[in-house]
């Protein structure tokens, strides 16, 4: 997967440079996430620390989060993606890392965004990925996950034809169940029909690591 994304980094960055400009529903839930990160921290109900954009690719979303007033950094396994992100968004921090072994201390982040970056995780390892997200999020921290969804909410993950690496589409209730199983509380769920950017339906889940009593 690393080699695949290294090879397509420039094409990918150019192709999706304005994707969010054409996706108002997606922008709305990202705005909700940033509001919850900021207001939760200000009210003492969240962590005012860094937000990690996990699987950031060329960094468009990381930069958007920072423009929204969030102290965000990008994490990606592809050196070519990180190089493009640093070139396009000078001053925004980007680091190489694996989603399943994040380079952060326990309970150190105020939020995580996994924007279509869970799709390459094999189904048998998804629980471990979400456990890692839970580990690095502080109590009260926010999590936003987006992914290609199955056509119905029934059943389990199904293979998805992806140009770079094997991937799966997931029913939103199953992802919600896995997140709940490792300790997250769901706040909101959005299902979006295919649009001019995505040819499959999409799902977005907004969750929280519960604060300490």
What does this molecule look like?
- The protein has helices spanning about 1-15, 25-40, 60-65, 80-90, 125-135, 170-180, and strands spanning about 50-55, 70-75, 95, 110-115, 135-150, 160, 165-170, 185-190, 200-210.
- With about 210 residues, it is α/β, with parallel strands linked by helices.
- A hairpin with a 6-residue loop joins strand 6 and strand 7 (about 165-170).
- The protein is globular and about 45 Å long.
- Beta-strand level of the residues, as a percent range? 15-25%
Low-confidence stretches: 42-46
Structural class: alpha/beta
In whole angstroms, the N-to-C terminal distance is 41 Å
Task: Give the helix level as a range of percent.
Answer: 25-40%
Shape: globular
What is the tally of beta strands? 9
Strand-and-helix sequence, N→C?
HHEHEHEEHEEEHEE
Could you give a short account of the major beta sheet?
A: 7 strands, mixed
What are the main properties of this structure?
two-stranded antiparallel ribbon; 213 residues; 9 strands; alpha/beta
Task: Explain the layout of strands and helices.
Blueprint: H1 2-15, H2 24-42, E1 51-54, H3 60-67, E2 72-76, H4 79-88, E3 94-96, E4 109-115, H5 126-136, E5 137-148, E6 158-160, E7 167-169, H6 172-181, E8 185-192, E9 202-208
Parallel strand pairs: 1-2, 1-4, 2-3, 4-5
Antiparallel strand pairs: 5-9, 6-7, 8-9
Helix pairs in contact: 1-4
Q: TL;DR?
A:
With 213 residues, the chain is of the alpha/beta class.
């Amino acid at each position: 997967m690393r080699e695949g994304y290294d090879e397509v980094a420039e094409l990918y960055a150019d192709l999706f440079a304005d994707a969010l400009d054409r996706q108002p529903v997606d922008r709305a839930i990202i705005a909700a996430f940033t509001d919850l990160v900021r207001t939760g921290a200000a009210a003492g109900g969240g962590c005012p620390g860094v937000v990690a954009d996990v699987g950031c690719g060329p960094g468009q979303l990381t930069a958007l989060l920072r423009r929204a007033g969030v102290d965000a950094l990008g994490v990606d396994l592809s050196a070519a993606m990180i190089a493009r992100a640093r070139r396009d968004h000078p001053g925004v921090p980007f680091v190489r890392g694996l989603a399943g072994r994040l380079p952060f201390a326990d309970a150190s982040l105020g939020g995580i965004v996994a924007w279509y970056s869970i799709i390459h995780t094999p189904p048998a390892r998804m629980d471990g990925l979400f456990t890692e997200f839970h580990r690095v999020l502080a109590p009260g921290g926010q999590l936003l996950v987006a992914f290609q969804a199955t056509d119905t909410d029934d059943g389990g993950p199904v293979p998805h034809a992806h140009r770079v690496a094997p991937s799966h589409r997931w029913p939103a209730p199953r992802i919600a169940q896995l997140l709940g199983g490792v300790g997250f509380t769901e706040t909101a769920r959005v299902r979006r029909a295919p649009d001019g950017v995505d040819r499959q339906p999409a799902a977005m889940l907004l969750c929280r690591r519960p604060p300490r009593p």
